[in-house]
Design goal:
It is a single chain. By secondary structure, this protein is mostly helical. The chain has one domain. It is about 75% helix and about 0% strand.
Length: about 300
Protein backbone atom coordinates (compact mmCIF):
# COMPACT_ATOMS: atom_id res chain seq x y z
CA UNK A 1 0.00 0.00 0.00
CA UNK A 2 2.87 2.34 0.81
CA UNK A 3 4.36 1.73 -2.63
CA UNK A 4 0.99 2.44 -4.25
CA UNK A 5 0.67 5.68 -2.33
CA UNK A 6 4.18 6.71 -3.33
CA UNK A 7 3.45 6.05 -7.00
CA UNK A 8 0.22 8.06 -6.76
CA UNK A 9 2.10 10.99 -5.19
CA UNK A 10 4.75 10.89 -7.93
CA UNK A 11 2.24 10.65 -10.79
CA UNK A 12 -0.13 13.34 -9.48
CA UNK A 13 2.00 16.33 -10.67
CA UNK A 14 2.24 14.75 -14.13
CA UNK A 15 -1.54 14.36 -14.30
CA UNK A 16 -1.96 17.98 -13.21
CA UNK A 17 0.30 19.08 -16.04
CA UNK A 18 -1.49 16.94 -18.63
CA UNK A 19 -4.88 18.35 -17.59
CA UNK A 20 -4.06 21.98 -16.81
CA UNK A 21 -1.45 22.78 -19.50
CA UNK A 22 -3.94 24.25 -22.05
CA UNK A 23 -5.37 26.43 -19.27
CA UNK A 24 -2.15 28.44 -18.85
CA UNK A 25 -2.22 29.43 -22.53
CA UNK A 26 -5.55 31.04 -21.70
CA UNK A 27 -3.94 32.84 -18.77
CA UNK A 28 -1.29 34.34 -21.07
CA UNK A 29 -3.91 35.41 -23.63
CA UNK A 30 -6.20 36.96 -21.02
CA UNK A 31 -3.27 38.89 -19.54
CA UNK A 32 -2.43 40.30 -22.97
CA UNK A 33 -6.10 41.14 -23.53
CA UNK A 34 -6.22 42.99 -20.21
CA UNK A 35 -3.29 45.19 -21.22
CA UNK A 36 -4.94 45.82 -24.59
CA UNK A 37 -8.23 46.82 -22.95
CA UNK A 38 -10.16 43.86 -24.37
CA UNK A 39 -12.12 41.01 -22.82
CA UNK A 40 -10.05 38.42 -24.64
CA UNK A 41 -10.61 34.73 -25.28
CA UNK A 42 -12.10 32.41 -22.65
CA UNK A 43 -9.55 30.81 -20.36
CA UNK A 44 -10.56 27.39 -21.70
CA UNK A 45 -10.37 28.38 -25.38
CA UNK A 46 -7.46 26.04 -26.17
CA UNK A 47 -9.44 23.06 -24.83
CA UNK A 48 -12.26 23.92 -27.25
CA UNK A 49 -9.79 24.33 -30.13
CA UNK A 50 -8.07 21.00 -29.46
CA UNK A 51 -11.34 19.06 -29.17
CA UNK A 52 -12.61 20.71 -32.36
CA UNK A 53 -9.44 19.77 -34.25
CA UNK A 54 -9.59 16.18 -32.99
CA UNK A 55 -13.04 15.80 -34.56
CA UNK A 56 -11.85 17.01 -37.96
CA UNK A 57 -9.98 15.20 -40.69
CA UNK A 58 -6.38 15.86 -41.72
CA UNK A 59 -5.28 17.06 -45.16
CA UNK A 60 -1.83 16.05 -46.41
CA UNK A 61 0.09 17.53 -49.29
CA UNK A 62 1.22 15.23 -52.09
CA UNK A 63 4.80 16.34 -51.51
CA UNK A 64 4.89 15.10 -47.90
CA UNK A 65 5.98 11.64 -46.73
CA UNK A 66 5.50 9.53 -43.62
CA UNK A 67 7.88 11.89 -41.80
CA UNK A 68 5.30 14.67 -41.91
CA UNK A 69 2.53 12.41 -40.62
CA UNK A 70 4.62 10.95 -37.82
CA UNK A 71 6.18 14.19 -36.55
CA UNK A 72 3.23 15.53 -34.46
CA UNK A 73 2.92 12.24 -32.53
CA UNK A 74 6.70 12.10 -31.96
CA UNK A 75 6.74 15.70 -30.77
CA UNK A 76 3.85 15.11 -28.34
CA UNK A 77 5.28 11.82 -26.99
CA UNK A 78 8.72 13.38 -26.47
CA UNK A 79 7.25 16.36 -24.63
CA UNK A 80 5.17 14.11 -22.37
CA UNK A 81 8.29 12.02 -21.62
CA UNK A 82 10.21 15.15 -20.61
CA UNK A 83 7.24 16.31 -18.52
CA UNK A 84 7.23 12.97 -16.68
CA UNK A 85 10.78 13.71 -15.50
CA UNK A 86 10.27 17.40 -14.77
CA UNK A 87 6.88 17.02 -12.99
CA UNK A 88 8.29 17.12 -9.49
CA UNK A 89 6.53 16.25 -6.23
CA UNK A 90 7.84 16.34 -2.63
CA UNK A 91 8.56 12.61 -2.95
CA UNK A 92 10.09 12.48 -6.43
CA UNK A 93 8.89 12.37 -10.04
CA UNK A 94 6.82 10.06 -12.23
CA UNK A 95 10.04 8.98 -13.99
CA UNK A 96 13.23 9.33 -11.96
CA UNK A 97 16.75 7.90 -12.13
CA UNK A 98 20.33 9.29 -11.93
CA UNK A 99 20.96 11.45 -14.98
CA UNK A 100 17.27 11.61 -15.92
CA UNK A 101 17.47 15.35 -16.50
CA UNK A 102 19.85 14.79 -19.43
CA UNK A 103 17.30 12.44 -21.00
CA UNK A 104 14.59 15.07 -20.50
CA UNK A 105 16.64 17.67 -22.37
CA UNK A 106 17.22 15.20 -25.22
CA UNK A 107 13.49 14.46 -25.33
CA UNK A 108 12.82 18.17 -25.82
CA UNK A 109 15.49 18.22 -28.52
CA UNK A 110 13.80 15.24 -30.21
CA UNK A 111 10.50 17.10 -30.25
CA UNK A 112 12.21 20.06 -31.92
CA UNK A 113 13.96 17.75 -34.40
CA UNK A 114 10.66 16.13 -35.38
CA UNK A 115 9.02 19.52 -35.95
CA UNK A 116 11.93 20.76 -38.06
CA UNK A 117 11.94 17.57 -40.16
CA UNK A 118 8.20 17.92 -40.66
CA UNK A 119 8.62 21.50 -41.91
CA UNK A 120 11.41 20.51 -44.30
CA UNK A 121 9.41 17.52 -45.57
CA UNK A 122 6.69 19.78 -46.96
CA UNK A 123 9.08 21.32 -49.49
CA UNK A 124 7.72 24.79 -48.65
CA UNK A 125 10.20 27.67 -48.76
CA UNK A 126 8.35 29.44 -45.93
CA UNK A 127 8.41 26.40 -43.65
CA UNK A 128 12.04 25.78 -44.52
CA UNK A 129 12.79 29.36 -43.52
CA UNK A 130 11.09 28.83 -40.16
CA UNK A 131 13.01 25.57 -39.65
CA UNK A 132 16.32 27.29 -40.34
CA UNK A 133 15.49 30.01 -37.80
CA UNK A 134 14.54 27.36 -35.25
CA UNK A 135 17.83 25.48 -35.56
CA UNK A 136 19.73 28.79 -35.56
CA UNK A 137 18.41 29.72 -32.10
CA UNK A 138 18.35 26.21 -30.63
CA UNK A 139 22.10 25.91 -29.79
CA UNK A 140 22.05 29.19 -27.86
CA UNK A 141 18.97 28.19 -25.86
CA UNK A 142 20.26 24.67 -25.17
CA UNK A 143 23.65 26.01 -24.04
CA UNK A 144 22.01 28.30 -21.48
CA UNK A 145 19.75 25.46 -20.32
CA UNK A 146 22.58 22.94 -19.96
CA UNK A 147 24.75 25.38 -17.97
CA UNK A 148 21.75 26.09 -15.74
CA UNK A 149 21.28 22.35 -15.14
CA UNK A 150 24.97 22.00 -14.35
CA UNK A 151 24.69 24.81 -11.81
CA UNK A 152 21.74 23.10 -10.13
CA UNK A 153 23.60 19.77 -10.18
CA UNK A 154 26.68 21.27 -8.53
CA UNK A 155 24.63 23.13 -5.92
CA UNK A 156 22.49 20.08 -5.07
CA UNK A 157 25.22 17.45 -5.61
CA UNK A 158 22.72 15.41 -7.62
CA UNK A 159 22.03 14.54 -11.26
CA UNK A 160 18.37 13.62 -10.77
CA UNK A 161 15.65 16.21 -11.37
CA UNK A 162 13.63 14.87 -8.42
CA UNK A 163 16.30 15.96 -5.93
CA UNK A 164 18.13 18.63 -7.92
CA UNK A 165 15.54 21.39 -7.60
CA UNK A 166 14.34 20.30 -4.15
CA UNK A 167 17.77 20.72 -2.56
CA UNK A 168 18.87 23.68 -0.45
CA UNK A 169 20.34 25.77 -3.28
CA UNK A 170 21.60 29.23 -2.24
CA UNK A 171 19.18 32.08 -2.97
CA UNK A 172 21.52 34.02 -5.34
CA UNK A 173 21.91 30.87 -7.44
CA UNK A 174 18.14 30.36 -7.53
CA UNK A 175 17.50 33.95 -8.64
CA UNK A 176 20.07 33.72 -11.43
CA UNK A 177 18.65 30.36 -12.51
CA UNK A 178 15.13 31.78 -12.57
CA UNK A 179 16.03 34.78 -14.74
CA UNK A 180 18.06 32.63 -17.14
CA UNK A 181 15.33 30.00 -17.37
CA UNK A 182 12.67 32.65 -17.96
CA UNK A 183 14.62 33.94 -20.96
CA UNK A 184 14.96 30.39 -22.29
CA UNK A 185 11.22 29.89 -21.68
CA UNK A 186 10.37 32.86 -23.90
CA UNK A 187 12.55 31.57 -26.74
CA UNK A 188 11.71 27.86 -26.47
CA UNK A 189 7.98 28.58 -26.38
CA UNK A 190 8.13 31.13 -29.21
CA UNK A 191 6.90 34.05 -27.14
CA UNK A 192 7.56 37.75 -27.57
CA UNK A 193 10.26 39.15 -27.85
CA UNK A 194 11.74 36.04 -29.54
CA UNK A 195 8.68 35.20 -31.65
CA UNK A 196 5.02 36.14 -31.90
CA UNK A 197 2.64 33.13 -31.68
CA UNK A 198 -0.31 35.21 -32.86
CA UNK A 199 1.16 36.65 -36.03
CA UNK A 200 0.15 35.42 -39.47
CA UNK A 201 2.99 37.00 -41.43
CA UNK A 202 5.29 34.19 -42.54
CA UNK A 203 8.29 36.48 -42.87
CA UNK A 204 8.35 37.09 -39.09
CA UNK A 205 7.31 33.66 -37.77
CA UNK A 206 9.46 30.81 -36.44
CA UNK A 207 7.33 28.07 -34.90
CA UNK A 208 3.98 29.00 -36.41
CA UNK A 209 5.32 28.94 -39.96
CA UNK A 210 6.67 25.39 -39.43
CA UNK A 211 3.17 24.01 -38.81
CA UNK A 212 1.28 25.83 -41.57
CA UNK A 213 0.56 22.57 -43.44
CA UNK A 214 -0.71 20.67 -40.38
CA UNK A 215 -4.44 20.28 -39.86
CA UNK A 216 -7.01 18.29 -37.92
CA UNK A 217 -5.79 15.96 -35.14
CA UNK A 218 -2.15 16.61 -36.09
CA UNK A 219 -2.55 20.33 -35.44
CA UNK A 220 -4.40 19.53 -32.20
CA UNK A 221 -1.43 17.44 -31.03
CA UNK A 222 0.93 20.28 -31.90
CA UNK A 223 -1.13 22.80 -29.92
CA UNK A 224 -1.32 20.44 -26.95
CA UNK A 225 2.42 19.68 -27.05
CA UNK A 226 3.14 23.44 -27.11
CA UNK A 227 1.01 23.98 -24.00
CA UNK A 228 2.76 21.08 -22.24
CA UNK A 229 6.13 22.60 -23.08
CA UNK A 230 5.10 25.96 -21.62
CA UNK A 231 3.83 24.18 -18.49
CA UNK A 232 7.15 22.30 -18.23
CA UNK A 233 9.33 25.41 -18.41
CA UNK A 234 7.02 27.42 -16.14
CA UNK A 235 7.10 24.58 -13.60
CA UNK A 236 10.90 24.51 -13.68
CA UNK A 237 10.99 28.29 -13.23
CA UNK A 238 8.79 27.93 -10.16
CA UNK A 239 11.04 25.14 -8.83
CA UNK A 240 14.06 27.42 -9.26
CA UNK A 241 12.64 30.15 -7.08
CA UNK A 242 10.44 28.03 -4.80
CA UNK A 243 11.89 24.68 -3.64
CA UNK A 244 9.67 21.68 -3.04
CA UNK A 245 8.50 20.71 0.43
CA UNK A 246 7.19 24.09 1.59
CA UNK A 247 3.83 22.60 2.58
CA UNK A 248 2.95 19.43 4.41
CA UNK A 249 1.09 17.47 1.72
CA UNK A 250 0.96 16.83 -1.98
CA UNK A 251 -2.32 18.74 -2.44
CA UNK A 252 -0.97 21.89 -0.81
CA UNK A 253 2.33 21.51 -2.66
CA UNK A 254 0.66 21.24 -6.05
CA UNK A 255 -1.74 24.10 -5.29
CA UNK A 256 1.25 26.28 -4.48
CA UNK A 257 3.07 25.04 -7.60
CA UNK A 258 0.07 25.71 -9.87
CA UNK A 259 -0.30 29.20 -8.39
CA UNK A 260 3.37 29.83 -9.12
CA UNK A 261 2.98 28.56 -12.71
CA UNK A 262 0.01 30.89 -13.22
CA UNK A 263 2.11 33.79 -11.91
CA UNK A 264 4.90 32.92 -14.36
CA UNK A 265 2.37 32.84 -17.21
CA UNK A 266 0.98 36.21 -16.13
CA UNK A 267 4.56 37.51 -16.24
CA UNK A 268 4.88 36.10 -19.78
CA UNK A 269 1.71 37.96 -20.75
CA UNK A 270 3.04 41.18 -19.24
CA UNK A 271 6.32 40.85 -21.15
CA UNK A 272 4.44 40.25 -24.40
CA UNK A 273 2.26 43.30 -23.73
CA UNK A 274 5.02 45.81 -22.98
CA UNK A 275 7.72 44.63 -25.40
CA UNK A 276 8.00 44.39 -29.16
CA UNK A 277 9.46 41.49 -31.06
CA UNK A 278 13.28 41.60 -31.33
CA UNK A 279 15.35 41.23 -34.45
CA UNK A 280 16.97 37.80 -34.72
CA UNK A 281 20.43 39.10 -33.81
CA UNK A 282 19.02 40.56 -30.59
CA UNK A 283 17.37 37.23 -29.76
CA UNK A 284 20.80 35.58 -29.98
CA UNK A 285 22.24 38.25 -27.71
CA UNK A 286 19.43 37.66 -25.24
CA UNK A 287 20.25 33.94 -25.16
CA UNK A 288 23.95 34.69 -24.73
CA UNK A 289 22.97 36.85 -21.75
CA UNK A 290 21.01 33.91 -20.36
CA UNK A 291 24.12 31.74 -20.74
CA UNK A 292 26.15 34.35 -18.86
CA UNK A 293 23.62 34.32 -16.01
CA UNK A 294 23.70 30.51 -15.91
CA UNK A 295 27.51 30.57 -15.89
CA UNK A 296 27.48 33.05 -13.01
CA UNK A 297 25.09 30.78 -11.11
CA UNK A 298 27.47 27.87 -11.80
CA UNK A 299 30.46 29.81 -10.46
CA UNK A 300 28.58 30.73 -7.29
CA UNK A 301 27.42 27.14 -6.86
CA UNK A 302 31.00 25.87 -7.24
CA UNK A 303 32.22 28.43 -4.71
CA UNK A 304 29.55 27.51 -2.17
CA UNK A 305 30.06 23.77 -2.64
CA UNK A 306 33.85 23.94 -2.39
Amino acid sequence: MADTNTIAVDVFPLLCGLVLAPFIIGVVNRTKAFFAGRNGQPLLQLYFDIFKLLRKGAVFSRSTTWVFRLAPAVSLASTVSALAIFSLSPEGAALSFPGDIVLAVYMLALARFATVLSALDTGSSFEGMGASREVMLAPFAEAAFFILILAAAVASRSMSAATMFAAAIPLPVRILMFVSLFIVLLVENCRVPADDPNTHLELTMIHEVMVLDNSGPDLGMIFYAASLKLWLFASLAVCCIMPAGLTGGIIGEMALRVAGIICVCILVGVVESVMARFRFDKVRRMLVFASVLSSLALLIAVGVSA
